[in-house]
């Protein structure tokens, strides 16, 4: 019999091989998961798997949450199919977390033994269930819950994802900024009409899920119902529970008449609410899906119509994904400024043949001590990613159409001053505040993104390869956004080499201050040359089966390798083309490796 390794416990372990002591909860894992994650203790378990608190030893022992899933199938073919669907789901969760600050980031997914694992960001804070035990929820607090979570639901529903398990335990108030974070997407599935997807909708919690979801059919209106049930229970302090015999009891919901009694309980407890909020809750909790709100945006509109709204917070209604980009002075509530610049085009000899005056909007992030990060608004659109048949390398093919949504991207590569402001050190070989930071690995860049996001409350990240190439091209189809070639008057690269019919030029043999050369038509500088720039994507040898929605490619390939784009001061001009790619180990550093951010 195995004994707990905790010297203060030493009790026998569970005979079924459980690695966690049932007496003290100590982790008795002797090895790291995938040589990276140190499991600390068991947080919970259910029919689908277990959840652990853990540390990532490759990222300064950062805390994380690991979810272990047990495939509910048998047979080699069925297990393989489950693993493939798991990867697809992991990719979907990754995209959600990387693009919304109120959804935990997915750090990794992997298979080990007969189990499947997700590694997610650890959110420091407490759930609304814990808050309910400490305080009462007034109308003002309920309105703030709705105002905070409805935009998150609109975001995930726009991406064809349903959460399926909204309840106080799955809503975390983040300690750093007080924002509500929607956790536990373990049951989320992309909305399809397949029988396999419908079988997966069996994930729900009694007391929060509507009848159609419990019957196997969920929709966005099901999540809105669960949010309404959550608010009603927080307001009345009435949670569903079990009696001494294990039977379910619920004062707030009359099962036989399919009727919510929250108004009766509120009156009984002397809880007063406005007609506006009462009507919103009633409509959220309608028994028939067609009688409920059909989108979170609709709920926000009614919430905003309250004549005596209790908070000055702007409740923005997210735009549908099909809405075309319109230049404006705000981007998701961010105040934007405008700047002007010249866009240069050259022929195959490097001779300037056109110069146009253009403008773009940008957002300024104050990093402190006079250090500013400028993020340029990039309009969404479609483009042909990769090199055409008679250009470039096989590594850059096949060329394929990709659609990218609008976003913000760093005007320049991250500078040494910006790195110093967030990390406090400077790893660069060539020193200078306005020089791009270099000698940074992919892991270092991700750590910077994490700390910057924590500091600002906004979700900064590395670009996907598709986002990077789209931004670099800036609506062009030539090898460089400047045209058919480049010169050392336009780009910092090894001037001893040439492309097309351009002449040789100056070789700086080091980085140059960001913004020293002309920008592209989006207003982005140094997209060719200066430093290679890290992207999110795994190392793939071509674009066969690559995503077409602008997302990072995080399935298949080699996950120990990451992609870089743009070339560097050391590169020949061929390697500075818009389509050129470089694969490198995620922990490798060099004085020609840098990065820029996406917001």
Report what the structure shows.
This protein has helices spanning 76-99, 128-134, 139-158, 195-200, 211-214, 220-236, 262-268, 275-284, 296-304, 416-423, 442-456, 465-473, and strands at residues 37-45, 49-56, 62-69, 106-112, 115-121, 125-127, 161-162, 171-174, 180-182, 189-190, 241-242, 248-249, 253-254, 259-260, 330-331, 334-335, 337-346, 352-368, 371-378, 381-385, 400-404, 407-410, 532-539, 558-565, 581-585, 593-594. By secondary structure, it is α+β, with helices and mostly antiparallel strands. The strands form nine sheets. The chain has a five-stranded antiparallel beta sheet, with helices on one face. A hairpin with a 3-residue loop joins strand 1 (37-45) and strand 2. The two termini are 52 Å apart. Residues 14-18, 22-26, 188-201 and 308-330 have low confidence and may be disordered.
Strand content: 15-25%
Count of alpha/pi helices: 12
For the sheet with most strands, the description reads: 5 strands, antiparallel
Query: Quick one: overall form?
Result: elongated
Helix content: 10-25%
Strand-pairing-aware structural class: alpha+beta
Distance between the termini: 52 Å
Task: Give start-end ranges of low-pLDDT stretches.
Answer: 14-18, 22-26, 188-201, 308-330
Which strand order does the major sheet show?
A: 1-2-3-5-4
C-alpha Rg, in Å?
26 Å
Number of strands: 26
Mean pLDDT: 85
């Amino acid at each position: 019999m195995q004994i707990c390794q905790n010297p203060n416990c030493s009790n026998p372990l569970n005979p079924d091989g459980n690695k966690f002591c049932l007496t003290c909860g100590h982790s008795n894992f002797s090895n790291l998961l995938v040589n990276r994650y140190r499991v600390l203790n068991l947080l919970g378990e259910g029919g689908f798997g277990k959840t652990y608190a853990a540390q990532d030893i490759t990222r300064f022992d950062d805390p994380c949450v690991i979810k272990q899933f047990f495939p509910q199938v048998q047979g080699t073919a069925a297990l393989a199919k489950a693993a493939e669907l798991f990867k697809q789901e992991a990719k979907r969760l990754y995209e959600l977390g990387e693009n919304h600050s109120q959804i935990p980031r997915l750090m990794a997914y992997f298979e080990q033994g007969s189990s499947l694992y997700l590694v997610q960001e650890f959110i420091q804070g407490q759930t609304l269930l814990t808050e309910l035990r400490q305080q009462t929820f007034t109308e003002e607090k309920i309105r703030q819950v709705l105002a905070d979570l409805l935009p998150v639901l609109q975001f995930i529903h726009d991406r064809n994802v349903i959460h399926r398990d909204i309840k106080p335990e799955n809503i975390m108030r983040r300690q750093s900024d007080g924002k509500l974070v929607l956790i536990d997407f373990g049951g989320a599935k992309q909305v399809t009409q397949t029988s396999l997807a419908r079988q997966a909708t069996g994930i729900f919690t009694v007391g929060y899920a509507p009848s159609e979801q419990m019957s196997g059919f969920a929709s966005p209106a099901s999540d809105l119902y669960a949010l309404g049930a959550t608010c009603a229970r927080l307001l009345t302090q009435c949670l569903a529970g079990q009696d001494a015999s294990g039977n379910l009891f619920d004062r707030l919901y009359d099962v036989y008449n399919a009727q919510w009694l929250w108004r009766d309980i509120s009156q009984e407890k002397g809880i007063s609410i406005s007609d506006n909020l009462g009507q919103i809750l009633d409509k959220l909790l309608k028994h028939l899906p067609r009688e409920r709100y059909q989108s979170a945006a609709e709920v926000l509109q009614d919430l905003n119509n309250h004549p005596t709204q209790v908070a000055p917070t702007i409740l923005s209604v997210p735009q549908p994904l099909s809405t075309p980009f319109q230049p404006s002075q705000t981007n998701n509530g961010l105040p934007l400024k405008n700047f002007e610049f010249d866009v240069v085009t050259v022929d195959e000899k490097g001779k300037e043949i056109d110069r146009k005056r253009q403008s773009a909007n940008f957002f300024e992030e104050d990093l402190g001590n006079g250090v500013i990060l400028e993020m340029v608004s990039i309009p969404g659109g479609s483009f042909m990613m990769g090199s055409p048949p008679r250009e470039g390398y096989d590594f850059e093919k096949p060329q394929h159409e990709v659609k990218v949504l609008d976003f913000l991207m760093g005007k320049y590569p991250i500078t040494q001053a910006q790195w110093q402001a967030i990390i406090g050190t400077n790893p660069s070989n060539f020193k200078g505040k306005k020089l791009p930071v270099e000698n940074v690995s992919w892991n270092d860049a991700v750590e910077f993104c994490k700390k910057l996001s924590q500091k600002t409350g906004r979700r900064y990240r590395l670009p996907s390869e598709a986002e990077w190439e789209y931004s670099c091209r800036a609506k062009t189809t030539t090898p460089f956004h400047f045209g058919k070639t480049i010169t050392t008057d336009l780009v910092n690269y090894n001037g001893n080499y040439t492309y097309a019919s351009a002449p040789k030029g100056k070789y700086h043999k080091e980085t140059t201050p960001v913004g020293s050369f002309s920008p592209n038509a989006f207003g982005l500088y140094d997209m060719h040359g200066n430093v290679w720039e890290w992207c999110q994507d795994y190392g793939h040898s071509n674009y066969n089966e690559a995503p077409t929605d602008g997302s990072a490619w995080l399935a298949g390939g080699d996950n120990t390798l990451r992609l870089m784009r743009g070339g560097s001061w050391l590169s020949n001009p061929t390697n500075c083309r818009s389509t050129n790619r470089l694969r490198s180990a995620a922990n490798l550093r060099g004085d020609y490796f840098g990065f820029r951010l996406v917001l």
